[in-house]
Amino acid sequence: MYGIRFVFKLAICGACVVPAWLALASEPADGDPPKRTPDAVYVPTPDDIVVKMLEVAGVTKDDMIYDPGCGDGRIVVTAAKKYGCRGVGIELDPKLVRDARANAVRNHVERLVRIREEDIFTVDLSQATVVTLYLLPWMNAKLIPQLQKLKPGARIVAHDYGFQDRVQEPEKMITVKSKEDAVEHYIYLWTAPLQPKPATE
Known about the structure:
With about 200 residues, the chain is an alpha/beta fold. It is about 25% helix and about 20% strand.
């Protein structure tokens, strides 16, 4: 299923007191270049696929969404704007961090959205009730130990790529043709606890 789509993507590849957890939302990025080389080229998720991902995850105003590799922040910004929930975007590239923070301000959700300039493989995801993923398969797989710390009932929704068959089959998988790029996209859903796939004999 990854085949040509995988190669193609490699090629192009939230007088009020602001809560403490939002304190860094408007801080400037630490500067260029990134602290280390990013693992993949940023490819934005089409907006209609973002909306569908949030729908599949059953997002509500009570959720806390984490988006590792958030790029321009469109997923957490859309979630905050549409549902009124809080969101945390994690991004390594300082330019994208600035873009994401500006996106939150532009959409008037800077009090709900926090964008953190951090390495996704070192961040604590355990406070998330929803984690959204649009990363390469090996990157998803590398996040498994962090995702296994999610509280039971937390949802993991992934766009196009899964976990290299290292966890149980998704509870749901749908195919959606985006009106923006006329391409079919896959959306997968898992609910925590994330279980390793049983070994085959």
